[in-house]
Amino acid sequence: MKQSLFESRSVRLVAVAVSLAAVTACSRTQPDLVAEKGRPAYVVPVRDSASTALEYVGEVRATQRIELAFPISGLVAQVLVEPGAAVRQGQILAMLDEEPLQAQFTVAASDVARTEAQATEAGLRVERARAAHSAGATSEGEWSAVQAELIVAEAALRSARAQRDLAGWSLGHAKLRAPAAGVVATRILEPGQTAGPGAPVMTIDGSGRELSVRVPEHLDLQPGQLVQLRRGTSLLESRVLRVSGRLEVGGLRQVFLSVPDVAQVGSTWAATVFPRAMATNKVGVQVPLRALLPGQTGDAGSVLRLKADGRTTELAAVQLGTVRGGWIEVATGLQAGDQVVVAGGASITPGAKVIPVVVSQ
Question: What is the pLDDT of residue 223?
Answer without folding.
Answer: 92
